[in-house]
Give the backbone structure.
Amino acid sequence: ILRNITFCKQDILAFKPDALVLIDYPGFNLRIAKWAKAQGIRVIYYISPQLWAWHASRAKAIKRDVDKLLVILPFEKSFFKGYGIEAEFVGHPLLDALKDLPAAAPADESKPTIALLPGSRKQEVSRILPVMLEATLAFPNHRFVVAGASSLPESYYQDYLKDFPSVSLEKGNTYSILQRSVAALVKSGTSTLETALLDVPQVVCYAGNPISYQIAKRLVKVKYISLVNLIVDRPLVRELIQHELTPENATTALQDILQPEKAAEIKAGYAELRHQLGDGGASQRAARVILDSLRQK
């Protein structure tokens, strides 16, 4: 990382920009921001670090080194204001990314599909997928599809799936799986937001290393683990966290969201979520804010 920082600094000096736009990746970009500010370069940060979850101490560095902060989650504006930082909410780019997806293959209505998204890291999958698979046994009239991560070999999943012949695996095809699903069990993370924006009722699942979880529980200062619930500021979707993630709880929660009334309630909440996220156009708004910021220099 130090070699990349050196290369990046050299490249910026050679280009002599009017402004530097940093995107996400705080471990790297906050170092560059501090250096660029010292060079007299205007610093604009798009997709801010998630300091509201942890590492709020970085707010001091952002206030010192960043001239304009653009955020993609609606509650981040008020969060940063509490640290004396005037952030601008531009909306979430995922709305546009998902808007133009090609149509998925028609779903088999005789046996509806339920998506299983157990994460992309081996440690996550090893703790979460077995629970999800056990829950499938209570739904003989549904088909289940595991959205496999491209980073993990198919053989890794097959070790888990061999005893569940009714569950299939599709790798690198998550959006298509969700588009044809009536419900989903989803590991916490960005996937919960993607699932919501594709209008699929979901149960959020998380189980980590017990020691790491206890440490994180003391460091992470949020009411909910899923972005969906954080944005609408209420428990719209059920969260099964750590010891609560059992086959019995997953089965009950899944049965609940398959009921038409509950599914309709969740989808109504998803419509509210989309509106709170800006109803699309985030990248265009971000570009306008950046250009306006340069004109006001």
